[in-house]
Design brief:
Blueprint: E1 9-12, E2 21-27, E3 32-35, E4 40-45, E5 56-61, E6 64-65, E7 69-73, E8 78-80, E9 82-86, E10 92-96
Antiparallel strand pairs: 1-2, 1-7, 2-3, 3-6, 4-5, 7-8, 9-10
Protein backbone atom coordinates (compact mmCIF):
# COMPACT_ATOMS: atom_id res chain seq x y z
CA UNK A 1 0.00 0.00 0.00
CA UNK A 2 1.39 3.37 -1.02
CA UNK A 3 1.39 6.25 1.42
CA UNK A 4 0.76 8.82 -1.35
CA UNK A 5 -1.86 8.08 -4.00
CA UNK A 6 -3.41 9.72 -7.04
CA UNK A 7 -5.80 12.50 -6.02
CA UNK A 8 -4.17 13.24 -2.65
CA UNK A 9 -3.49 16.84 -1.69
CA UNK A 10 0.23 17.25 -1.05
CA UNK A 11 2.61 20.04 -0.11
CA UNK A 12 6.17 20.34 -1.43
CA UNK A 13 8.67 20.23 1.44
CA UNK A 14 11.92 20.95 -0.41
CA UNK A 15 13.21 22.41 -3.64
CA UNK A 16 12.24 25.25 -5.93
CA UNK A 17 8.49 24.94 -5.25
CA UNK A 18 8.76 24.54 -1.46
CA UNK A 19 5.50 25.38 0.32
CA UNK A 20 3.23 25.03 -2.72
CA UNK A 21 0.21 22.73 -2.62
CA UNK A 22 -1.47 20.65 -5.30
CA UNK A 23 -3.19 17.39 -6.11
CA UNK A 24 -1.29 14.31 -7.25
CA UNK A 25 -1.98 13.65 -10.93
CA UNK A 26 0.05 10.46 -11.31
CA UNK A 27 2.26 8.17 -9.21
CA UNK A 28 5.04 6.64 -11.31
CA UNK A 29 6.87 3.36 -10.75
CA UNK A 30 10.27 4.89 -9.97
CA UNK A 31 9.08 6.58 -6.73
CA UNK A 32 8.17 9.85 -8.40
CA UNK A 33 4.90 11.78 -8.46
CA UNK A 34 3.44 14.34 -10.84
CA UNK A 35 1.63 17.16 -9.01
CA UNK A 36 -0.63 19.60 -10.84
CA UNK A 37 0.93 23.05 -11.44
CA UNK A 38 4.10 22.10 -9.51
CA UNK A 39 7.61 21.67 -11.02
CA UNK A 40 6.63 23.14 -14.39
CA UNK A 41 9.29 22.86 -17.08
CA UNK A 42 9.52 24.21 -20.61
CA UNK A 43 9.89 21.73 -23.44
CA UNK A 44 11.05 22.97 -26.85
CA UNK A 45 9.36 20.88 -29.54
CA UNK A 46 9.80 20.73 -33.26
CA UNK A 47 6.64 20.96 -35.32
CA UNK A 48 5.39 18.13 -37.51
CA UNK A 49 3.15 19.38 -40.34
CA UNK A 50 2.22 15.84 -41.44
CA UNK A 51 0.64 15.14 -38.06
CA UNK A 52 -0.66 18.67 -37.64
CA UNK A 53 1.44 19.39 -34.54
CA UNK A 54 2.74 22.94 -34.20
CA UNK A 55 6.21 23.54 -32.83
CA UNK A 56 7.07 25.87 -30.01
CA UNK A 57 7.65 25.95 -26.30
CA UNK A 58 5.29 23.80 -24.24
CA UNK A 59 4.97 23.93 -20.46
CA UNK A 60 4.29 20.72 -18.57
CA UNK A 61 4.64 19.23 -15.10
CA UNK A 62 7.78 17.18 -14.49
CA UNK A 63 7.89 14.40 -11.89
CA UNK A 64 9.11 15.06 -8.35
CA UNK A 65 10.66 12.44 -6.09
CA UNK A 66 8.15 11.17 -3.55
CA UNK A 67 10.44 12.19 -0.67
CA UNK A 68 10.05 15.87 -1.63
CA UNK A 69 6.30 15.90 -0.98
CA UNK A 70 4.22 15.25 2.12
CA UNK A 71 0.50 14.72 2.56
CA UNK A 72 -1.33 17.93 3.53
CA UNK A 73 -3.35 17.63 6.73
CA UNK A 74 -6.41 19.94 6.52
CA UNK A 75 -6.98 19.77 10.30
CA UNK A 76 -3.58 21.21 11.21
CA UNK A 77 -2.98 23.08 7.90
CA UNK A 78 0.53 21.58 7.74
CA UNK A 79 2.46 18.77 6.08
CA UNK A 80 2.07 15.48 7.91
CA UNK A 81 3.60 12.03 7.98
CA UNK A 82 1.46 9.03 7.06
CA UNK A 83 1.22 5.63 8.70
CA UNK A 84 -0.64 2.46 7.80
CA UNK A 85 -2.63 0.45 10.33
CA UNK A 86 -4.96 -2.50 10.19
CA UNK A 87 -8.49 -2.13 11.53
CA UNK A 88 -10.36 -4.78 13.51
CA UNK A 89 -12.12 -6.05 10.37
CA UNK A 90 -8.74 -6.61 8.63
CA UNK A 91 -8.91 -3.55 6.36
CA UNK A 92 -5.69 -1.54 6.02
CA UNK A 93 -6.05 2.25 6.16
CA UNK A 94 -3.75 5.27 6.09
CA UNK A 95 -3.70 7.70 9.00
CA UNK A 96 -1.99 10.96 9.95
CA UNK A 97 0.79 10.42 12.50
CA UNK A 98 0.20 13.75 14.31
CA UNK A 99 -3.44 13.33 15.29
CA UNK A 100 -4.25 9.71 14.32
CA UNK A 101 -7.04 10.75 11.96
CA UNK A 102 -7.85 8.11 9.33
CA UNK A 103 -7.47 9.31 5.71
CA UNK A 104 -9.32 6.51 3.87
CA UNK A 105 -12.70 5.99 5.49
Amino acid sequence: MRKIRKGDNVIVISGRDKGRKGAVVNVLEDDTVVVESINRVKRHTRGNPQQGKPGGILEKEAPLHISKVALFNPATQKADRVGIKQLADGKRVRFFKSNGEVIDA
